[in-house]
Each structure stands twice: as C-alpha cells, then as structure tokens.
Amino acid sequence: MAQEYVLSLGNRRATLESAGGKGASLARLLRAGMPVPGGFHVTTAAYDRFVAENDLESGIRAALENVDASKPDTLKKTSEKIGDLFLRADMPEEVSGAISEAYAGLDQGEPAVAVRSSATMEDLPGASFAGQQATSLNVRGEDELLEAVRRCWASLWSARAIAYRERQGFDHDRAAIAVVVQRLVAAEVAGVLFTANPLTGTREEIVVNAVRGLGEVVVGGLATPDSFTLDRTTLAVRERKTGRQEVETVLAKHGTTERPLEPERAAQPTLGDAQLARLAQIGIDTESHFGTSLDIEWAYADGRFWVLQARPITNLPPAPLQDVRWDPSFPDSAWWRRQVVENMPEPLSPLFDEVYLREGLELSIDAMMEFFRMTYFRVEDFVDRPLFTTINGYAYTRANYKPFGWSAVPMFLRVTVDEFRMMFGEEMLAYWREEALPAYLTKVERWKAEDVASAPDERLLAGVRELALEDARYWFACVLMLARAKVTDALLGRFLTMVTPSRNLISGMFLRGFPSPTLDAEAELTQLAERIRDSDDLQTVITATPAADLPEVLRRTPVGRDSLTAFSRYLDRYGHQVYNLDFVAPTQADAPLPVLLSLKEIVERPGHDPRSRQQAIVAERDKLVEETARSLDPLRRKAFRILLGWAQRFGPDREQALFHMGAGWPILRRLALELGRRLVESGSLLTADDIFFLETSEIREAIAVRDSGQANPNLANLARGRRELREARKRLHPPPVVPTAYNVRFGPFDMSAFETQRRNVPDGTTLRGFAVSPGQVSAHASVIRSPEDFSRMEPGTILVCPTTTPAWTPLFSQARALVTDVGGVLAHGSIVAREYDIPAVLGTGVATQRIRSGQRIRVDGDAGTITLLDTTGEEGTRRR
Fold this sequence. Notes:
Layout: E1 6-8, H1 16-31, E2 39-42, H2 44-53, H3 56-64, H4 72-88, H5 93-104, E3 113-119, E4 135-139, H6 142-155, H7 159-168, E5 177-183, E6 189-194, E7 205-212, H8 216-219, E8 223-224, E9 226-231, E10 237-241, E11 244-245, E12 247-251, E13 256-260, H9 263-266, H10 273-290, E14 294-301, E15 304-312, E16 335-336, H11 350-372, E17 388-391, E18 394-398, H12 409-423, H13 427-448, H14 457-499, H15 517-533, H16 536-544, H17 550-556, H18 561-574, H19 593-604, H20 610-630, H21 634-658, H22 665-681, H23 696-707, H24 713-729, E19 737-738, E20 745-746, E21 749-750, E22 766-768, E23 770-773, E24 776-783, E25 797-801, E26 815-820, H25 828-835, E27 840-842, H26 847-850, E28 856-860, E29 865-868
Parallel strand pairs: 24-25, 25-26, 26-27
Antiparallel strand pairs: 1-2, 2-5, 3-4, 3-5, 6-7, 6-14, 7-9, 8-11, 9-10, 12-13, 14-15, 16-18, 16-19, 17-18, 20-21, 22-29, 23-27, 24-28, 28-29
Helix pairs in contact: 3-4, 4-6, 4-7, 11-14, 13-14, 14-21, 14-22, 15-18, 15-19
C-alpha cells in the first residue's frame, strides 16, 4: 500500500499516529460538524520519508549524543545543528507534489493558510507539548507553504521540544510530527474558551478569554485578554474582567505584524453577551463529542465563530463538592482530629481506611489493653466502638465518652497509678525497643525479600494487609513513647507557667538539641552536599538543574553518578518516611523532591552545618537551664530539676519511635502496585495505583475475575470514581471537632485543652495557635498544602502548611519559621522546628485558609500568635 503523505482534514485515517495530536483532534471536530476551517494534513509518513531519504536519522542521533537538558547553551547548539540538517535537505518530489496538489485544491489562486505542527506526543493525557513546535500564519504560495512545512518538521528538534522530552522521559526515537494546513481565518477577535472553570474546577461555569486581532498577541505576552465567566445553564455572563491591550496582531503582506490599537476600539468590549452565548454553546456542543472538559482555541471573523483547536484541559481541579455537611458518622457521637489522625492530613484512600483505620487501629487498642493488663475495666465500659471513623473522607477519633460520675474516680486513679508506674519504669521502653520494633522490622525484611514478580496475586494482597496491620499495631508502641513524652512535657510546662509566669518560658525551650534521626538525616545530606561542592563541574550541574530533574541529569553525567549512588544510600536509610501515613501517598523514597530541593539549597548555600547548630542549641539550652534553676528557691529548684530530668529523658524517645512509622510502606506499595499492574492488564483497573481505591473484598473479586481470564470494568469505574471524590475532598477544610460546637468531656473533666487546633475567628489580623518553638520572625509566607506543592517552597520564607510528617523535614532547612493548621507541643513539626532553631506556632486551625503565599506575616513562637502584616500576596513558584 502506498504511503499517504496527505489526508483531507476530516479523514477518518487522521489518527494520533498519522496526524499528531492537534491533527487528530481537528479531524474529529470536523466530522462532528463543528465550524472548523477547511484544510489538510501532511502526515507523519511524509516526515518519515523526508528523514529517511536524506539520511537525517544518524545526524540527529549524533547531535543528541551528549545533550544536557540543564544547559541551555548545549540545547541551543544541538537544536541549531539538527535545524541546519533540515534546511539543507531536499524534500522528496512525491511529498512536495502531494502537498502542492492538496494546496491547489483548497481554492483558486494562492489562498492564505495557517501551517501548524502536530506532534504525536502532543495533547496527551498528563503531557502538554503546547508551544513546543512551530506555527506559521498567512502563508501564501507553494514555495512559502513547503518552507513552512519544513520549519514545522525542524521544530520537532527545537531546544524547547528537546528539553521537554528529556524532562518528561519521552524517547526521542519515538518522536514524530505531522503538519496541519488550514485556510486562514483573518480574526477580528480571537481567544480561548474553557468548558469548565480552570481555576476552581467548577463545571457549571464556562470561561472565555478574548483579544482583538489574532490570538498570537497573547502568546507573545503583548496583551492581557478580556475574561468572561458564563453560567453554563443560562449562558448569562456572571463576571467580566477587562484586560489590557495596546497592540493587536494583524495580517501583513507576508506573515503577521503588530500594530497599535486605536483607543476607541480598545475601550469597546471584545465580545457582546449574544456573541458570548453563541460561543459558549459551540463549546458545550464540542465538549459533548469529546466527553471531557475542553480547552478550545477559537476565532471570530465576518460574523462567524471558528474552532481552531480543542484539547482536554490540563490539570483541571476536581469539581467543587456541593452541600458538604460535617455530621457524625454514627448517631449521638462526637469526633475530633488528634493523635494518630494528625498524621493523615488528607482524605483517606478506601484501602487504607479499611485495613489501617477500621481494622488495624482497633487491634492496636486491644493490644494496649492487653499490655497494661487492666482486667478491672474494658474500653467498652467508657466509650463505644468503633474508636476511629472518617467524615467526608477525613480521619477522626471518637471524642464522646459514656457518662459516669465522681464514683468512678477511684478506678481512674488506680488506672493512673498503674500507668505512671509502668511509664516511669523500663517496661514501656523495653516493650517498644525489644519487642514491637524488632517484630515489625522483621516482617518488613521478610516481605522485602519476596519475589514480587512471581508471587501469586493473593500472596501480594496478603503482604499488603499484613504490613498495614503490623504498622497499625506498631502505632500502639509509639503511643507508649508518646505518652511518656507528653505527660512529662506537660508536667514541666505547667510547672514553668506556675513558677515563672512573667518569663514566657515553655517546655520546648528545654527539650532541644538531642540526637535524633532527623538530625542524622540532615547531617548525612549536608556531607553529600559538601562532596558535591568539592567538584566545580558537579556543583555547576546541581546549580543549573531544576531539583526534579537532578536524578536523571546525574545519571547521565559521569561525575554525578557517585553522588547519585550516595543519594540512593540516603534514601535506603531515610526514604521510608511518610508525607502522609496513608499508603496511597508516595514515601520519600518514591517522591524525593523535597530532599532534592534541600540538597540543592545546601549546595548553593555553603556554611550549612547541622552539628554545629546542634551544639549551639545545646549550649543555649543548658545556659537557660542554669539561669532558670538559679532563679528558683531550693524547693522549686529541686522540683524543676526532677521534672526537667523526666522530660529530657523521655522526650527524645518519641522521635526515635515515630521514625519507624510507615517503615513497611515502600515494600507495601511495591506489592500493591504490582498487583494493580496485573489488574490493569486484565481490564479491572485503569491504572496500577487505582488499587488503593478498592477494599479487600473488591480486590479479591478482581483477582478471581483475572483468574478466569475476564475483566470487571465496573471495578475500574468504581475505583476511578472514588479517586475523583478524594481529589475533590482535598479542597475541604475538616473542622477540629464534629459536631463543630461539641465540647469534649471525659465524665466530669473538660478535655478541650487536648484539642490540636485553636478556634480562631474568621477575620482579623491575628491568629492564635500553640507556642511550641521560641523566637520571633517576620517574613513572606510559602503556603504548602501537600507534597505536590513542595517546589513552591521559597527559601527564607515561613512554611505554612496543614501539618507536617517526617518526610516534610527537608523543607525545614529552607524555612525561617513554621505555622500549621493542626498540631500541638509534641507534634512532629514542633520538635523538628526546635532542632532547626526556628520559631513555630502550630494548631491555628485556619492558617492555610487565611494566609497566602507571598504575604508578609509575623510569627511569635513565644506568645503563640501569627500577625498578618499585609493583605496582599501572590501565588507563584520559582522553578528550582
């Protein structure tokens, strides 16, 4: 069969492979009856013939041999070298003849056309190559057309396109390109239409951006478009924002040019309400054929709208949830976000919810009762089961207790005495260090040795469940270490408040500078940075490369491979640390961006020495101890020494215990994703990590279907629906207590002091929280809501986030202070902030809602307040 070098625009053979992403989309639009300017495709077969006949492939490979995406000069030279090859090559006569014949068929004479590249990797889900290749407007005549086609082909090897494929991991050998040739629309107005609001995710709104003249004025950054937000149902305009346009792009004799826009035209609306309604209806009709929200390029000329391109909206937020209520999961119950759920900042995945929260933690409570050997009462005597639940996907622990009176106090005193006896002895420490931790790590090692590729499906599922349940049981051992640290910290803090009311002393001032895995990890990373600085070439690579690209760049750089090996050893030791206890979230080893950001920052900032900082903190701490002791009378001094000794003895155990939380998650995720991959192959899941959105019984059903050689697409849809719901729920802000007005009590005792969030008013310039690390700092804020935002962390700013877990620690080296929504004096963030010697205020409840990135704020770690110093702030990123 002869190669098809040209296809009509609406031809059904114009697929992604033959016509590229843009071309395939236009063909689909035209067949659906959308108003698309006529034209034709120059197929990828034409490009392949051009490359093959001129033997360009070997030249391209030679040019790419030493390409380095981190070095603009290298990219430019590589691109110019390949471009020169294309300019000197001859176009095969069969190809040029087919193009000329198709052009002649458009119209009599030499019609003006638009010539646009259409790459086969363009407009793919999860990858946008917009702007990477070439466009030529107002092309007239065969010679100009053939030259424009050649430029489009060469643009596949532009510096931007090469760098993008390098960063995204796309294979250059698989890159191919087609060209779309269309009649040119001499636009009076042009722009973009979104069939959903791209900022809020609202599907009930249509957003239109419009400028006068051709749309290239926006691409070139020469104008700010008018913006209109329309109601999808009524097509009425909800909001108008007037842009700023002083020049417009118009057609010249050849190509285009910019000319000043007359003031009287600039003052007029680009589109009227009736025109906007017509355009919006075209968008709705187009969306109905694609089945997804679209980003549509359009033009208006001679009273008619034209569709120039349509593609799915990239990174569209989930649709906002409507009528969300924070009601208890069970009748007459109350719930709060504290203890273990503080490590679950986002909505839970269904598998984690089932296995860890509902099964594992309940088993952990039973293990606790067995450990304490408290046979004279049961948990159920004072609180109903379950003890944990989710509300709108967020984890909560029970806050309502069965009523009892003062008659039960003697029994509680007995329980308290038993707990204190065990707490201040060695039994708790021995249980954690000699039983719980070794048992957990042994199971992790056993599953790590499993041959994942050959393990049966049920075996993989068994490993996921066993590791999840074992980590939940290990949580109880952590609770023991937490309890000792929390009680002794509270005793010291209360004592300081009573005996030194005017000095604003907090317990955290005396609990700094102790050895910890956090400090060990920072010191090891600093040593790696120092070795990098010893090599000028390597330091240059690190400095010039965005953090996310460092592993790939180092892998291709001989001088960088040793550093990459050292970094891998670092992740082996510390990479199990979690951003989120829910195993749906990657661990630090899976997603090391914050560590890479920290490494890059240390390399660029000589003098970072965590051990010296620790020594300075120890000296400052010990000086404060002596000053405080001298200020007290003998009796109080003795009490202070005793309470301080307890707190300093038990406090460091907390971080040692919590360091191993999630230790099994790297192997658990490996087991789960292997099983998920198999279920994708069988057709029961769409992506491997959709497995986290099924429960155990559903996974077993999928395994059974796979064993029968069939698929269950209903499970795929179920998992994808749950994933989308979780994404939408991420935009909610869970209250500290449900019902929100509930006052937590334990019998006659008020428990509100144990809440992990202050109840701040919704306005004003001051937020209250818990003072956990001393000092005052005024600086701009970096609001980091999740690991996806880590690249937005600006060095030297105040880190504002919902909460922190161990894997957030690398961000602390870049922060001048810490503010969180959730957390108290013994939360992870408070302890790490003290070790990094930065002020911290935790548990504000609303910081991530009230503070914007770029806004200047003041953090008072002594008083526990945050002051908003200005009302501005802009969301932005600095690519690092």
